[in-house]
Design a protein that fits this description.
With 336 residues, the protein is an alpha/beta fold. Helices cover 49% and strands 12% of the residues. The longest helix has 29 residues.
C-alpha cells in the first residue's frame, strides 16, 4: 500500500524531528542550567595559561578523558569548552552537568533517561543527557558531589560506552568524550570513602590544574577589559575607565574568588557607576585607558612582590607563579 519513496520520506521526517527535538532540549537545558555563565574563551598569555593552552592543544585531537582541577572561579568550564572547540567534536553538543545542583534523586534519570512500557511495548520515551550529548562532549562539573551509587554506574558507562535507559530492554552505544572538573580534594575524598577509588583513577588520566588569578596576574588587564566591554554592553551602561592606577590596585589584590570575583567586581562597579574606593583612581593625572600599559603594571607588581619578599627572587617567583629565570630576566631588563 506504500511506495518506497513515501517510506523513505517518512523516515527522513522522523529523523529530522528527532534532531530538532534534541537541539531544542539541549538549548532549554543550557538556559535552565545558566550555562551561559560558563561560555567564553580562555584568555591570557601568562606562563601558566600558556602552559594550560599548550596542554589543551596536545590533547584536543585525542578521545582521552580530562580532569580539570583548581580553586573555585578559576575557569575550569571555560577551559573545558575551549578544549571541546579545539577538538573534532566542535560541531557537536557540549553538555555541562553540575553534580552539585542536580538532586541525587533526579540526576540518574537526567543522565540516562527512561522508557515507560505497557503491555510489553514502549509508549513513552525520554532520552537522557548521555544520549542527547552523543557525538559530542559531556562535562561533569563538581564531580565529587556525584552520589556514590551513581559513581559505579558512571564508571561502567565510561569503560563500556554503552547505556541502558531505565525501563529499556536494550543497551544503546555511545560516542562521547568525557570531561570532569572539581575544586575538591579528590584523593582526600577517596581516602574518606566519599569517592570511588576506581572511578578516580579512571577519570584522572590527564589532570589539568587551572591557575588562580594570583598566579596569572599579568592576565588581569586583558580579563578586566573583556569583562568591562561585555558587561557594560549587556547592562547598556557606559564602561568605566581602566586607568593604570586602577589596574595596579586590581593587580595588588589577592583575589580569593579568582576570575569570577573579578567579573563580579566589574559588574557591581558598572551598576554603581564607580569602582570601590580601594580600587578607584583618586589621582588627577591622565585618564587614558591603560590596557596598553601592561608592562608598567607588570613592572610595578613584580617589584612590589620582590620588595615584600625582601628581595628574595626565588620566593617572589613562587608567589607570582613564574620561573626564577623570568624574574631574573625582568630585573635585568629593568636594571634592578
Amino acid at each position: 500500500p506504500f511506495r518506497s519513496n513515501q517510506i523513505l520520506n517518512a523516515v527522513a521526517r522522523s529523523i529530522d524531528r528527532l534532531h530538532l527535538q534534541r537541539e531544542n532540549y539541549l538549548l532549554k537545558y543550557e538556559l535552565s542550567a545558566e550555562a551561559n555563565a560558563g561560555r567564553g574563551r580562555l584568555l591570557g598569555n601568562s606562563p601558566r595559561i600558556a602552559e594550560v593552552r599548550d596542554t589543551l592543544t596536545k590533547v584536543a585531537p585525542l578521545p582521552t578523558s580530562v580532569l580539570f582541577t583548581g580553586d573555585t572561579g578559576t575557569g575550569k568550564e571555560i577551559a573545558a569548552r575551549t578544549l571541546h572547540a579545539m577538538s573534532d567534536r566542535a560541531a557537536k553538543p557540549f553538555v555541562p552537568v553540575n553534580c552539585a545542583t542536580v538532586s541525587p534523586d533526579a540526576i540518574a534519570n537526567e543522565l540516562f533517561g527512561h522508557v515507560h512500557s505497557e503491555g510489553g511495548k514502549a509508549h513513552e520515551r525520554k532520552d537522557g543527557l548521555l544520549l542527547y550529548a552523543n557525538g559530542g562532549t559531556l562535562f561533569f562539573d563538581e564531580i565529587a558531589e556525584m552520589p556514590l551509587p551513581l559513581q559505579a554506574t558512571l564508571l561502567r558507562v565510561i569503560e563500556e560506552m554503552r547505556i541502558r535507559p531505565f525501563g529499556s530492554q536494550r543497551e544503546v552505544p555511545l560516542n562521547l568524550r568525557f570531561m570532569f572538573a572539581s575544586n575538591a580534594d579528590l584523593p582526600g575524598a577517596v581516602e574518606l570513602g566519599k569517592f570511588r577509588k576506581d572511578l578516580y583513577h579512571r577519570i584522572n588520566v590527564l589532570n589539568i590544574r587551572m591557575p588562580t588569578l594570583r598566579e596569572r596576574i599579568s592576565d588581569l588587564p586583558e580579563l578586566a577589559s573583556m569583562f568591562m566591554k561585555k558587561i557594560s554592553g549587556e547592562l547598556r551602561v557606559p564602561p568605566l575607565p581602566l586607568t593604570e592606577q586602577v589596574l595596579l590596585k586590581l593587580s595588588c589584590y589577592d583575589w580569593p574568588g579568582n576570575v569570577r570575583e573579578l567579573r563580579n567586581l566589574i559588574e557591581r562597579s558598572l551598576i554603581l557607576g564607580e569602582f570601590p574606593p580601594e580600587f578607584a583612581d583618586h589621582g588627577d593625572g591622565d585618564e587614558d585607558e591603560a590596557i596598553d600599559s601592561l608592562q608598567a603594571v607588570e613592572r610595578r607588581h613584580i617589584l612590589t612582590v620582590l620588595d615584600a619578599c625582601g628581595g628574595n627572587r626565588a620566593e617572589a617567583a613562587r608567589r607570582l607563579g613564574v620561573s626564577r629565570k623570568t624574574i631574573d630576566r625582568k630585573c635585568a631588563m629593568w636594571d634592578v
